[in-house]
Structure formats: C-alpha cells, structure tokens
Amino acid sequence: MKHNYPKVTIIGAGNVGATTAYTLMLLGVAREIAIVDSNVQKASGESLDLNHGISFVNPTSIYQADYKDGCQNADVIVITAGAAQKEGETRLDLIKTNTKIFKSIISEIVKYAKKEAILLVVTNPVDVLTYVTYKLSGFPSNQVIGSGTVLDTSRLRFLISQHFQGINAKNIHAYIIGEHGDTEFPVWSNAQIGGVTLEKYLKSCSNKNSKPYKEIETELKSIHEDVKNSAYKIIAAKGSTYYAIALSICSIIKAIVRNEQTIMPVSTFIDDYYGVKDIYLSLPSLVGQNGVEYFLRLDLSPEEQKLFKKSAQTVKKIIEENRQ
Fold it and tell me: Domains in the chain, please, with CATH?
C-alpha cells in the first residue's frame, strides 16, 4: 500500500458516497478518489463539483470512473451503492433489493481489484451485505469489512457526554456491538469514562450519584434507545443520513491506509465468540493496512451474551431466508 498516495474508490455517488468523497478530500486521507456509479452523469457532476474546491485542500485527484479504471490499484474500495432506507423502513427491509444489486457490483469489483485491496461495505443491512460480499468476492475475511457500529458507537459516546456534564466524548470509552440495526446494544459492563468504569464513575465522580442506581440504569436504557432510533429520527426529519456516516467511513479508511492499528467496532467475520460463528457482526477490532487483524473478545455479562446471540440469530435468519 502506498501510504503517501493512497487510492480510494467509492462505488455509489449518492448522498453517502458523495459526502464520503468530500470528507476524504477535506481530511487529506486519500490522494486519489475514484467515483463509480451506474449514473455516469451524477458521478461526473459530483467529481466536477469537488474538483472546483481542490485549491483549498491538499492536492487530490478526484474523477468519475468505470469499474476497470476505478478499481485497478485501489487500496480501499468503499461500497455505498444500493437502495436507501426510507422513513418507516428498517435496515433489514432492504435486503432483497440490495443483495440483487450487490451481485452485479461485486462481480465487477473482483475483475479489476488487486488482491490486497480492502473492501469496505457501507450499504444497509451492512452485516448481511458484508457477509454477501465476503462470499461472492472470494477475498479473505480480514479484507472484507463492514462499517458496522462505528457510527452507532459515536452516537452513544456523544449522548453519554451530553448526559454527564458535557464530558468530552473522546474521554468516553463505550461500544455498541452486534447487528447494525434494531438488535444492537451497548456493552455497559465494559464502559469507561476517563479510565474509570461507568458504574464506579457514577458512584464516585458524577453529580448523578445522589440518584438511586436503578434510576440511573433507566437513564442509560433511554440513551440506548436514542442511539438505536437516531437514524430513524434523522430520516424522518431530512430524508437521509450522510454527514456522520461519512466521517465514520473516513475514520475506517484512515486506519487502513495509514496503518493506524486503531480499535473500532467494525462489522467483522466472527469465527467463534460465545458460540457465534460464520457471520459478520460488529465487535471492537484492530484495523490496519491488512484490514481487520483480529477482534477483541470482550468479557460480556450474562445478559450481554444473550443480547449478542439474539443479534446473531436475527442476522443469520435473514441470510438463510435470502438464500431460499
């Protein structure tokens, strides 16, 4: 991988794909950005619009491309194409439409992508489609990653920071794991603020400690519900989400192209974790130039283990139904 001149290809020039290209350009993460879309005019227009701002950022080559020119020599290939989630629709409702779209996309990618390329799936339902990409592409599982719950985790940390005296979200270490969807859940048993477990922080550091812990647990459940329903609220308000997801995508790409060895809850292949196997779900994982090096085997509480298995069963059921 050419760390000083990484190439990122984005499949899909919709809101998420275009905003991701814009964010990559602003942050200087990629020096070459190829945008591929069946709507060539749309991809060309996005590329032209972005190029008109090149004088304000680091030198970046941005262009509309077909699969051949776009995927050749790409270090990371980001797939954002597919039907978007609509108001009142769950991520899992999109499976049949987007699986069909993915079959044609992946067949084109594998024709031209180099064997070391990392495939980053963003399209929903991301865990199912990342698994589909892994099976169709023939790429090693570590090189096929889903954006997973990276954004959900950021939402969780933001809401915790707002709830507890506006603590900087960077000082909060808590994860959302499992499916990127309605069965996702926060790992409260491992959550920390400034290196202090959340429960200990609440009892000894927070001005919330005057409340009974059961009442605080209710507040934490409310935070979880807000995280889970965030996308629905945004979609109802403005039609789609794209700013925060673009930032989360760029954080994953940066970890790959700069070999940062960053731990983030991407959707990764689970070989055996609390009896769950042969599935893609989000767990904190070490991400670098080879994709996912490994995932962290968190010590989950008995209740969290049940939630993780429920999340896995939900995704597996959808995969099995889609095979029929």
Answer: 7-148 (3.40.50.720)
